[in-house]
Every structure is written in C-alpha cells, then in structure tokens.
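To: structure desk
From: M.T.
Subject: fold request, one chain
Message: Could you run this one when you get a chance? Sequence is below, nothing fancy, just the single chain.
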Amino acid sequence: ANAAKALLALDHYADAAEACMTIVGIEPRHVGAHIDHGVALSCLGRIEAARAAFAAAREADPSRFAQIQRQ
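Reply: Done. Structure tokens follow.
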C-alpha cells in the first residue's frame, strides 16, 4: 500500500494501479488499496473503472470506507 501511495505521489498512475491490484489480489478487503486504485484509474482517465474500484472499497468494508472518507 505504501508503494502504491508513493507511485501516486510521483504521478506514476499505471504503476500505482498495478501495485494496487497486486495488493487487492493478496488482501481483497484492503479498502485503502481499492481507493488508491480508484484514484490511479481516475488520473488515467478511466472513470468507470475508478467508480468500480471505489464501489469495491465500499463493499469490502463499509465502515472503514466511511472512516476514510471523513479524513
């Protein structure tokens, strides 16, 4: 998750998206990885895929998703 955030900070969106998918493959309920994936996809102009990633974050853990949204 930290690598994905670093890649996002460096504007390496495709690499960040790939890193997030790796994390989600290992830990499907990792809300932060789903959210970061959505951000990366959004930055790549893949809006529908980004929406799906955000929906997956909400589905994985609704309370954690709400907590992150409030931050």
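Reply (cont.): Residues 13-26 form the longest helix (14 residues). Let me know if you need anything else for the meeting.
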